[in-house]
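Deliverable D4.2, example record:
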Amino acid sequence: RWVKALALFLLFTLIGLIKTSMFVSERMASGATELNFKYFLINEMTGSYTAFILLPLLFWFFNRFRMTRRNFISLIPLYLIASMLFGAAHTVLMWLSRKAIYAIGNYGPFHYGKMWERLFMEYHNQIFVFLTFWLVVSFFRYAKERQDERLKRVRLEEALTQAKLQSLQMQLNPHFLFNTLNMISSTMYRDVKTADSMIANLSDLLRQTLKKKDSEFHRMDEELDILELYLKIMRTRFSDRLKIDMEIDPETRVALVPGFILQPLVENAIKYGGSASGFIEILIKAKKIGSQLSLIVRDGGPGLSDSVETVLSSGVGLSNLVERLDKHFSENYEFRIENLKKGAGMQVIIYIPFRRA
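Output generated by the structure prediction step:
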């Protein structure tokens, strides 16, 4: 408020000086021998400063009796009366301040003429000042309301996005859990010891998942720790038939990634990436490329036989992942599924902004 008040004070000072300069210049142009600079300065500066003093009342009036499209006609008489009161108050303050300054400075008597005629004459300028400040106040109020409206809309969109992300997270966890439990159930009748080990590993994984359930982003090394717990379950089930290779750029370990971004990709690779001999070979790569983080999960299976749209719509894991990427990064990401050489497997490639934790 003090900064705004000081800015307005300086503005009114500038207006007073400009008007003084105008009158003095007019006197000089007309060839007058006496410029009366001192009197013009006193008169114009008192005019500016007394208007500045009345500004709080104008601001209060414009905010108290706000003119809108609905009440525009009905408020015109009130605004007209207010402009007259403002004009009268401004004229009286100018008369009193100039009279006092003239007396204190021994500049002789101050002649203001007949007050009623003076009130009428000054009102021509004062109605212009009144309307100017009404327009300025209305403009800034409108601009602030538009800004508040945009901010409210952005906050609402953020809240909706957050709610959607939480919904997607809630969808992802049961999907993973049910798939893993079904796998353990099918193993239990063939190998109780293996199933028991898988349950123990699943317990550790769920414990870690619950710790991270409120985190939208994980550090890459934390994401890899969670993935390793999942891979323990898979290795227990598939034994020597599952081979996992990782090529993780050390720089990427401090990157922030959406939580549980790798697990659905690896789960999908294990499900569809088995070779004809039943052997499953998966490569997981993470690399920083410029300002992007590249994540690749590649398998050595038969490759993609259906369209990408069909693959995404066939299950929860990948479609959930793509939707979360879209919510987090809007258009600033890339998700690609592609076949390698014929019969040499398939890979999923993701590019997201590289952000350090």
